[in-house]
Amino acid sequence: MPKVTYVDHDGTEHAIDVPVGENVMRGALYNNIEGIVGECGGALSCATCHCYVDEAWTGKVGGPATDEERELLEAAASEVKPTSRLSCQIEMSDELDGLVVRLPEAQY
Ligand code: FES
C-alpha cells in the first residue's frame, strides 16, 4: 500500500499507509492527523484540507492546484503558496508511494 508522509507545522512526520483510490485528506482523517480537518468531506467547498505538496512531488500529483482549487484556497485558506493543494483532490495511486505533504500551522 502506498505511503504518505504528513509533516506537521512543527516538523513532526507521520508516515501513513493510504489505500490506492483514497484521497490524501481521508488518509489523514482516518489516522488522526490533526493538521487536516476536511470539513466538507471532500466536496471542494471548505479548504480545511489545505496542504503543501513537497516540491519533489508537485508534478506527480498532477501539478499545481486547478483553477477551482486555487479560487477556493485564495478565498478560504491562509498562507497559500505555489505548492498549495487541497488534499481531498489528490487521489492515491501506486505512483504516489512516498508522497510528502506539509501541513499549514492552522486550517481556516
Ligand atoms: Fe473540503 Fe477538501 S475537504 S475542500
Structure commentary:
The chain is an alpha+beta fold and 108 residues long. It has a single domain (3-102), classed as Ubiquitin-like (UB roll), CATH 3.10.20. The chain contains 2 helices and 5 strands. The protein has helices at 24-29, 67-76; strands at residues 3-7, 13-17, 50-53, 84-86, 99-102. It has a 5-stranded mixed beta sheet with strand order 2-1-5-3-4. Strand 1 (3-7) and strand 2 form a beta hairpin. The longest helix has 10 residues, at 67-76. It is globular. The site of FE2/S2 (inorganic) cluster (FES) has 13 residues, from loops.
User: How many β-strand runs?
Assistant: 5
CATH architecture field: Roll
The structural domain count equals 1
Rg, alpha carbons: 12 Å
Spatial gap, N to C terminus = 31 Å
Question: Might you state the CATH topology name?
Answer: Ubiquitin-like (UB roll)
Question: How would a crystallographer describe the biggest sheet?
Answer: 5 strands, mixed
The portion of residues forming beta strands comes to 15-25%
Q: Could you give me the name of the CATH homologous superfamily? A: Beta-grasp domain
Ligands in the model, by name, code or SMILES, are: FE2/S2 (inorganic) cluster
Structural class: alpha+beta
* Helical run tally: 2
**What spatial order of strands do you see in the largest sheet?**
2-1-5-3-4
Can you give me a brief rundown of this structure?
This protein has 108 residues and is of the alpha+beta class. It has a single domain (3-102), classed as Roll (Ubiquitin-like (UB roll)).
